[in-house]
Amino acid sequence: MADIVPESEAFERTVEMLRGGHVVAVPTETVYGLAGDATSGPAVAAIFEAKGRPRFNPLICHVTSLEMAETHAEFSPLARTLAEKFWPGPLTLVLPLKPGSPIHPLVTAGLQTVALRMPKGFVARLAGSLGFPLAAPSANSSGRITATTAAAVQADLGSRIDMIVDGGQCAVGLESTIIKVEEGAVTVLRPGGLAVRDIESLTGIAIARPASRSPVEAPGMLTSHYAPHAALRLNANIVEEGEALLGFGPVRAAGAGKAAAFANLSEAGDLREAAVNLFSHLNVLDSTGAPVIAVEPVPGEGLGEAINDRLMRAAAPRDSGQAAH
Ligand code: TXA
Ligand code: MG
After folding, report:
1. pLDDT of residue 318
2. Which residue intervals of the chain are DSSP H helices?
3. Measuring CA to CA, which residue among 109, 102, 44 is closest to residue 73?
4. pLDDT, tens digit, for every residue of 126-170?
5. Ligand nearest the Cα atom of residue 116
6. Whose C-alpha lies nearest to ligand 1, atom 19?
7. Whose alpha carbon is nearest atom 3 of ligand 1?
8. Gap from CA of 257 to ligand 2 centroid (Å)
9. How far is the CA of 308 from the centre of ligand 2 (A)?
10. pLDDT in tens, 275-294
């Protein structure tokens, strides 16, 4: 079971753990989050691992200030208005990722956008002291309900993490509202702890709702969410002429020597390392212009499930009518 430490005594130890690349469950005003260094691949992989049966949905990055946020995302005047009005608070803004931001591609799932939020209190202070944003999905295992008390986090994730910071019951109890701000369009991606109607009435900004009444699907849930230009051929045991090869473990694919380009997710066959490398390696191979990326089999256990989930989405047909973001 994890140590439960009262918020008033937890700051220094939490800073140390996060600086060391560990994950810690932390209270925010919305729900408990499972936090890690957003610029560290291994830390982010450990977040997904602790969530169990994970999917690599993009994660929200928590910042301490608008200034920190602006080093990682491009703020239009509209985005700045929203941040100034509602931060700190239960509002997440999805904005264009700033080129050169050290936020790891596993956080953004390889997207060119990033979700940023300035929470109230403990987590914002942590990010301020550390000097980097904290990636933090809700602190529940996949498919379980969101935790709003330290005890609920303990019951769900206690065997998989070392420490839970106890900040009592979350004040809002609902995840943040996620708003995507693009040139000419402001859209709700997820309704949450800040009413969209209130955002509109307090700013005069019109916010688009999704066309259907069905729950909003964040892009991480769309079939062809991460779509490289190249086609992907999964579970490849042979490399065809002109194909790039994405390896896993000691290379076994026949014809690997004549691959047009090659990258290995993890020579040692380590799934955590493979998760860290997944999106950046796909990008590198995609940028070579090879029409097909052959991907060696990746085992399905642990983080392998999420890796295979993402690979399947990247390999999914593009004409299924589901937009790739
Ligand atoms: O209140 C909250 O938002 C909590 C606390 C811990 O801050 N966090 C939270 O994170 O709910 P999570 O990972 O459970 O939900 C993140 C949502 C996902 O649905 C994901 O698809 C969406 O944010 N998201 C993240 N980055 C995105 C991006 N670049 N574009 C669109 N959606 C994004
Ligand atoms: Mg969640």
Report:
1. 65
2. 7-19, 41-51, 66-70, 77-86, 105-108, 122-130, 150-157, 196-203, 271-287, 303-315
3. 102
4. 999 999 999 999 999 877 788 989 999 999 999 999 999 999 989
5. 1
6. 218
7. 176
8. 42
9. 20
10. 888 887 988 898 899 999 99
User: Which of 18-22, 96-100, 221-225, 255-259 has the lowest average pLDDT?
Assistant: 221-225
Query: What's the average model confidence in pLDDT over 230-252?
Result: 95
List 294's β-bridge partners, or say none.
233, 245
Architecture label for domain 3-203:
Alpha-Beta Complex (3.90)
Domain span(s) for CATH 3.90.870.10 in the chain: 3-203
pLDDT at residue 220, rounded to an integer: 46
Residue closest by Cα to atom 24 of ligand 1: 58
In 3D space, the residue among 295, 206, 309, 199 whose CA is nearest the CA of residue 252 turns out to be 295
Direct distance between the N- and C-terminal alpha carbons of the chain, in angstroms, rounded to an integer = 39
For the CA of 90, the nearest atom of ligand 1: 1
Please count the other Cβ atoms lying within 10 Å of the Cβ belonging to residue 163. Answer: 17
Mean pLDDT of the chain, nearest integer? 90
Distances (CA, A) of 289 to 112, 148, 226, 285, 323: 19, 47, 17, 8, 22
Atom of ligand 1 nearest to the CA of 26: 6
Mean local confidence (pLDDT), 19-39:
97
How far is it, in rounded angstroms, from Cα 288 to Cα 101? 23
Angle between helices 303-315 and 271-287 (to 10 degrees): 20
Out of 63, 113, 149, 175, give the residue to mutate to test ligand 1, the one with the largest number of ligand atoms within 8 Å of its CB.
175
Dist. CA 256–CA 220, nearest whole Å: 31
Q: Tell me how far apart the alpha carbons of residues 52 and 29 are, in angstroms, rounded to a whole number.
A: 24
Least confident of 7-16, 33-42, 309-318: 309-318
pTM, two decimals, is: 0.85
Give whole-number Cα distances, 154 to 60, 147, 248, 283, in Å.
Answer: 22, 9, 34, 37
Per-residue DSSP letters for 85-96? HH-SSSEEEEEE
